[in-house]
Each structure stands twice: as structure tokens, then as C-alpha cells.
Amino acid sequence: MPHEKVLRIGIAGLGTVAQGLLTLLVENAERITRQAGMPIEVVRIASRSMKPKVDIGEALFDTALESLLHDDVDVVVELMGGSDAAHELISSALIRGKPIVTANKAVLAEYGNEWFNGNATVGIEAAVAGGIPIVSILKNGLSGNRIDWLVGIINGTCNYILTAMDEQGTSFASALAKAQELGYAEADPGFDVDGVDAAQKLALLAALAFDIPVSMDDMYIEGISGVTVEDLRYARELGFRIRHVGIARRNEEKFETRVHPSLIPATDLVGDVSGVANAVIVGANAIGSVLLVGPGAGGLPTASAVLSDLIEIARGTCQRLRTGQNEGIRTAITATESRYYLNIPAVDRPGVFGEIGDILRREGISIEAVIQKPEAMRRSDGEPWVPIVMVTERVVEASMDDALDQLSSLESVRGQIRRIRVADFDR
Hints:
This protein has about 425 residues and is an alpha/beta fold. The chain has three domains: about 5-125, NAD(P)-binding Rossmann-like Domain (Rossmann fold); about 135-295 and about 325-335, Dihydrodipicolinate Reductase, domain 2 (2-Layer Sandwich), CATH 3.30.360.10; about 335-420, Alpha-Beta Plaits. The chain has helices spanning about 15-25, 30-35, 85-95, 105-115, 135-140, 155-170, 170-180, 190-195, 195-210, 230-235, 300-315, 350-360, 395-410, and strands at about 5-10, 40-45, 60, 75-80, 100, 120-125, 145-155, 220, 240-250, 255-265, 275-285, 290-295, 330, 335-345, 365-370, 380, 385-390, 395, 420. Strands 7, 8, 9, 10, 11, 12, 13, 14, 15, 16, 17, 18 and 19 form a 13-stranded mixed sheet that branches. A six-stranded parallel sheet has the order 3-2-1-4-5-6, sandwiched between helices. Strand 4 (about 75-80), helix 3 and strand 5 (about 100) form a beta-alpha-beta unit.
């Protein structure tokens, strides 16, 4: 039976996600029409060079993004990445009353506050952990809850590298090279391994969870290049896994947002999330906690998220985002509390552990677990030293900073002390 209505879309960019979207629109056409209540038809594509890998009929091709603003386009799908051109296209489309669907977390993290005002339809499911419907969960499924915290493994590149280092004992450099070979990491991997990608995603999740402005200001951001195979091995001995996570937490009228490597208890399901998979666990006052796990990237999983927004728009059920109702005062990283993993390279002689313990006690820091590794003895300037590895009880970060400054000044400490925070989900 023919449909009177058709949702006509224009697509900017023809990269992996766009090609995946076109594939789904062709292969799943009947189901999509049933779910949306109407066919979804590609009428225009703006791309500088590439052509579709599937036959999508009579869509018009152009190199100019402005072609997507034509009256025959109902929804603009922005899948080209970048910031400036994407910002101009999205703003121009919204001014004309056209809904937007985008997978571009960078432009959303920078300009989202312009659009998340309740007056524009912007679909962003694909911008965070594409294979997990976390945006829908926060907007709809948990809309009656007060969300208190969320923790996410939200960068597949970092998770792949740490998994390879942990399970195969390969170095960071080797794991990164393999990730690049497999297409999980870019030629310039800094955006991923330095934590920027995860920070952009966390800014969006925190805005949706806490109704605060989208912002990376005052967010603590740390990548994974400082994590060693040794740290991963010792973490296992202590009952943990190391993963790169984004953490957002409500602290009364303030909010903390931070991205960094964390020790996760091996008994927690999140610690078992490996490879390029993503996971988000959300804590709320009615449901307790809920864990979502799925692919975090890839053409088809991300395209599936784009398609879910398009179907909602066709149904007329896509909620307009409104964030920033709470001021969103951020807690500085120095005011947050954590347990800590410390790896202290110390000279192997009597009294050294006592010196270290005295400094920790003066700063109010208690030791929860400790392992000394005499078999890992090394020599520096002719004197043997060993790693002293411990997990502390919870302490304010400022106190830990002071303690590390004092420990680093000890004559008996040789080299850089490595610190990794422990992620305690329910605190």
C-alpha cells in the first residue's frame, strides 16, 4: 500500500557511518517503513568525492553543503565530522526549521548549548557510544529518576589498547600500532588516547543526566599513555582491571566530570568489557543502577543510532533537547574523593617503607592493600630499588597531591610515582 507521506533526508558526508546508513536504508527498508510509519528516502547527498556503495535511486549529488537546505529536504543528517562547517550547516538548517541528526560529538560539545534550548529538534543518539541507546535511556527511560552518577567506557580505541596490554602483555606502542592497523585508531591518535574524544562524550552525557550546560570547562582530562603493562599486571594481583572511563557525579548542588584511567574491581561487570566495546553504568534514585554494553563505534552500529533518531522524527516522537536548567557548578578534581593505586619506585633498604607510611599518615591517608615486588628489583646508580604497589582508602585528591609531592622528594624514591584512581561506582 503506497504511503502518502515520505521523510526526505539530505546527508552531509559519505564516510563509514553514512555508507552504513545507506546500507541499512536499503536492506531494512520494509521494517524501517513500518517502524517510522512512512518511507525514509534519501533525496540529496553533499560529498566532495565519494559515491554510495549501494544503489539509493535518484538522490541528487552535490559538493556544496548548502544544497541540503533545499525545500525538498525534511531532515539534514550531518555525518561529515569537524566543527566549523558542521556548525554552520546545523545552524542554517535549524534556522529554516529543519530537524538535524548528527553523530558529531565535537560540534555538539562545542556548540550544543546553542541548540539544546527546547526550540530545535536535534537527534544525537549516534554521538555517544553508537551501539548503546544511552541518549534515549537518559531522555526517556530514566526521565522520572534523579540521576546521581554515571560511569562510562566511552572510547573504543582506549579500551582496545588497554585490553591488549592487559591480556597479551604488549606495550602501549605496540597495542596502538595494532589498533591503527585495524582501523580502530587514527594516524594521529591523540584525540583518542589523550582522552579528548571521551571528554566530549562525557560533556554530552552529563548535560543530559543532570540538566546542566554542555561544557568541558573544569573537566579533568587524562589519557592512557602513562599506563604500563606493569600497572595492569599489579592491578590484576590486587583484584582490579584498568580501564579508561568518564565519570560524572552529582555532589549536592555541584557536579564533577572527569576522564582518566581507573582501577575497576574485577568482580564488576564493567571490568570485563574488552576490545572496542563501550559500556555505561547509570546510578539513579529509583532504579538503583543499570548497565548498558555494546559496540562503541563502527559504521553499522553508529548508523543504527542515526536511524533510530530518524524514525523518532518520522513518528513525531523525537523530544527537543533542553539542558542547562541547573547552573552546573563544577567540583574541581582536587576536591574529589577516590581510592588510589600508587606504584612507588623505592630503594630496597630498611626503613624506606616506614618513611613512605609516615608521609601518608600525616596526610590522613590509610593503606588498604600493599604488595612489594622483590622479584622486580632493578638498579639505579648502583643501588637496588623495587616497586612498592598499594591501594589506599578514600581520600580527597588535594591530600593525595600533597603526599605525592612529599614522597617524590624523598631520597629513597627513584623515578616517577604512578597514580591511578579507583572507580567506586556507588560512592
